[in-house]
Write a structure and sequence with these properties.
The structure is a homodimer of 546-residue chains.
Chain A (H helix, E strand, L loop, with lengths): L11 H5 L14 H7 L18 H4 L14 H11 L5 E3 L7 H8 L12 E3 L4 H13 L4 E4 L16 E4 L6 E5 L4 E5 L4 H10 L16 H6 L7 H4 L2 H4 E7 L5 E4 L13 H4 L8 E8 L6 E9 L2 H15 L3 E8 H11 L11 E9 L2 H17 L5 E4 L3 H12 L1 H5 L4 E8 L7 H12 L11 E9 L4 E8 L4 H7 L2 H8 L24 H14 L12
Parallel strand pairs in A: 2-4, 3-4
Antiparallel strand pairs in A: 1-2, 5-6, 6-9, 7-8, 7-9, 10-12, 10-13, 11-12, 11-15, 14-16, 15-16
Helix pairs in contact in A: 12-14
Chain lengths: 546, 546
């Protein structure tokens, strides 16, 4: 790391007042850091050797293949090869023997929790090809799974049985960008980070950001209504997506790729595809309004002694930082242990604290922003709402601090697996779910430092600014006993506080049976109506939430 | 007006540099002001005596009453009286003789352009009552028109024949507000301004604002997906509305009144009601996320010599004012003439200019905002992009400047009527539509200063920040010849530049035949599918866009 030089200038006064520590990269040998590292034995934190996941059909034996779906034949494969070409556009394990490696990236998810039996992957290169593929599949009762970067967290983008994977990776062009309005049009397969880097050069920013940005596809982001790190500032995709091109199972191209900020001409049908999780159609292109990129970005990483004080920190940040607040992320101590152990990195603060938060500001005038942030930090530290903190002073430090938050998701899966719950909970109750779950897991004797215990830790983090908690149970291996403690306990807990069992990850396979905890019978009935309207044969992403 | 004291302090320097005029309220006798007032003869600007509008059935003789709909009988009226009570909840012109005045506010629109033959107005007091009313109407094939504040601009909220009006005015409670998250839940009949004033006391702001705020109902705003003055900053209702309660024609209550910022559990069906214009169901309650109210608000009113310079002004405002820019409104000289003549008020600037813009900033730190605005104004004035300007220095002046923009809509209808087009056009082409339309109207000999000419003026204004133009043709009386020049000319013009024939007002009756200029056959077909799914009998707001 390049950053050893101490404080960002605006914070010198806070430093002089003894309120704020410098950005510290050299304290590994300090007592605090040693104490920190000793909280976990080397053995318990040994990374698991990647193994193939269990088949979903073994984990969920109650799910039966729908006999109405056809088996894929040689003739089907020939049709697709003729349509798409024999090259990389068709990965055929039906008429040929493929190495497991060829199909595995499409059959399994990165958490090694779901694994399908797919033997045919199609990579159409255009909307017209998607249309022909889907029409053929619909006419022949072949089930399909639309797939982008396959970075989902609920098993929504991988097959269960032998569904055909339709992957968007060959549809990866940036179609257009208007530098006055900020409206970007992209193919579904454009990687989020590629789009954001393209926009950075134009002085704009993609209104969505998330940990998997280097792999996830924008089509998949929109299909799952991804929330992410910038929602607090730039709102949800339901507001920022202006147009969608999608293909229905019968091959109909929904040509709703509007490039206008406002278009009030009839039902906003594109919204059904945002968060539809590929169950009624497949998104092939997206038009989205992108905000101006802020020239001034500050990131502070703060230690807070209690969840009560964390709520006060959030309220103060909202009031004092106002229009420049662009992220308020919560992390508990356990999540930070996992990150730093998985990455082999050092925590940014010497002091251990039960809670941390990452605050980002983005604005157009760095002097103004620095002044606002300085005043805010002085205030919360002098009033002892925040106990310690650092502020990044360059891009490297900003990245480093963000990695403490963005690295959590991957770190929790590092030792074998992870049970993930992505939930919305009214703010005052938000962290209580983590405490209650930890208690349940401990009471069941499932958590410990050695290999005999399946659970490493129960941690909580997330987009506090959006009342969105990620409850993660990091495990050494998947274990039915853990699942039995967690479910339906977690869902019942959430239903009691009128939360949502999926804030931003979607339902996929993981939560298909639990939608009733967040939606009424009436709403589920109305959703089924929509599913039947658009996909009467049920070929789109079957066995998932609809 | 209380404001005579000159400049806001931040702008003293610009003033010293001779760049900026003071806020002027005393120049009525100046040469400029006299020249301004002389542009219109008293006769041509005499307000028309309000007369009853023509019946829509006379203006649109091609629309035939659907014979499948039942006639309202005594028995129907009795049922509703029993259900809702005999008081003000049922206005019955079926079994009794009513004065024209009793029914007129529900039968006609404020532009005096549409007028129906409704003889029964129902005002349910709860969602359950709406459910019973709709179920009864559906079972008995009685057509209905949901109606809020009846401030719409496309004839969507008034009946054509004898449809029953279901008015939301008795459902007017603020249900709840969460002071941490900013989530507000209201009945559909809450007046927008009432909600905003309630929020102001809590330090929050309603994310929507529009000229009709004193009368319009939030249910109607959401049903028409109103855009308004704050969209540039706070986004569209598709993003800010978190939940909706609505009733389908069969009486089903769509209970999707989520109070969570994020809820990713299935198809986002509520979106269909946002902009659905009451054609598939009736909204009875809304949950919406409200931003923090900015403590510092500045408003500047600037004169700009050409549309080309106006575009540069907009780009500079976007870049230099960044996150604090909360409105950028365009007004042409003609629109300002209409406002000041209708209101009998004085223009804020002495100098006449072909274009004006109103810029609003909202932020949390007035020193910072003032500095940004000052720097911006100095920059655009010293580079002669902007030729003159004033900045409001107190609430009264802010209101006064805003009235130059907000007063236009009413002013254009002041002399007898107005043809209104609310369109989205790529920014570079935006104002050209006004020039081209004016030319067409003039070439047809329809525009002049005396009563024999139907057209007073062709003016343009709107939410330039959203590429949203309001083209208004102010008339002394409605005249088929004017209409024939305007349509389909305007729609064809817009289709050519891939704009939208309705940016924010909706389609209603006015644009029912023109949706094809902005939507493909496929999209219209898909919309009809949705209409048939939810309203198979077609009783919801018939004869309108679907």
């Amino acid at each position: 790391m390049a950053c050893r030089s101490g404080l960002t200038p605006v914070l010198r006064r806070a430093r002089a007042l003894g309120l704020l520590k410098s950005f510290n990269t050299t304290h590994a040998s300090s007592a605090n850091a040693l104490r920190y590292l000793s909280t976990s034995s080397p053995r318990s934190f040994r990374a698991a050797t990647p193994t193939l996941a269990k088949f979903t059909t073994d984990s969920y034996p109650e799910i039966q293949r729908n006999p109405r779906f056809a088996q894929i034949t040689k003739d089907h494969v020939s049709y697709f090869q003729l349509l798409l070409g024999k090259g990389s556009a068709v990965i055929d394990g039906v008429t040929t023997e493929l190495a497991t490696d060829d199909m595995e990236p499409y059959n399994g998810d990165w958490m090694r929790k779901y694994r399908g039996h797919c033997k045919l992957v199609l990579k159409p290169g255009s909307t017209e090809e998607v249309s022909k593929v889907l029409k053929y599949c619909n006419d022949n009762m072949l089930a399909v799974v639309p797939q982008g970067g396959n970075t989902g967290l609920v098993g929504g983008s991988v097959p269960v049985f032998d569904e055909i994977v339709i992957n968007t990776s060959r549809m990866n062009k940036i179609q257009s960008f208007d530098e006055v309005s900020g409206i970007l049009v992209v193919d579904a397969g454009v990687v989020l980070e590629v789009a954001d880097q393209f926009l950075a050069e134009k002085g704009y920013i993609f209104p969505l950001d998330l940990g998997a940005k280097g792999s996830c596809h924008i089509g998949g982001n929109v299909a799952t209504n991804a929330g992410g790190l910038r929602l607090l500032r730039y709102g949800s995709l339901h507001g920022s997506v202006l147009g969608i091109e999608a293909v229905l199972p019968d091959g109909t191209i929904v040509d709703d790729l509007s490039k206008l900020r406002k278009n009030n001409t009839g039902y906003d049908l594109k919204q059904l595809f945002i968060g539809g999780e590929g169950t009624i159609g497949m998104i092939t292109a997206v038009s989205i309004i992108c905000p101006q990129r802020s020239s001034a970005v500050n990131v502070a990483f703060l230690a807070v002694e209690s969840y009560e004080k964390m709520q006060r920190t959030f309220r103060e940040a909202k009031t004092q930082l106002g229009e420049i607040l662009s992220a308020f992320e919560l992390m508990d101590l356990g999540s930070q242990h996992l990150v730093n152990n998985a990455q082999g990195s050092k925590p940014p603060l010497e002091t251990e604290s039960p809670f941390y938060c990452l605050i980002e500001t983005s604005g157009s005038n760095s002097d103004h922003d620095n002044e606002k942030l300085e005043k805010f930090l002085e205030d919360v530290m002098s009033r002892e709402i925040v106990s310690d903190g650092v502020v990044a002073q360059d891009q490297t430090q900003i990245k480093s601090l963000w990695s403490q938050r963005e690295g959590i998701s991957e770190a929790t899966a590092h030792w074998g697996g992870v049970y993930k719950y992505d939930v919305s909970i009214p703010l005052k109750d938000l962290y209580r779910l983590v405490d209650d779950t930890r208690e349940k897991i401990e009471a069941a004797g499932l958590k410990g430092d050695t290999d005999e215990f399946p659970v490493l830790d129960v941690v909580g983090y997330g987009h506090m600014g959006d009342s969105n908690l990620h409850l993660n149970v990091a495990v050494r291996r998947y274990d039915k006993r853990v699942e039995e403690v967690l479910e339906p306990f977690v869902y019942e807990w959430i239903a009691k506080v009128q939360g949502s069992i999926s804030a931003e990850h979607g339902l996929g396979l993981a939560k298909k049976n639990y939608i009733g905890y967040s939606r009424s019978e009436t709403m589920i009935g109305l959703m089924k109506q929509i599913k039947n309207l658009y996909d009467p044969n049920g070929i789109m992403n079957p066995y998932k939430y609809m």
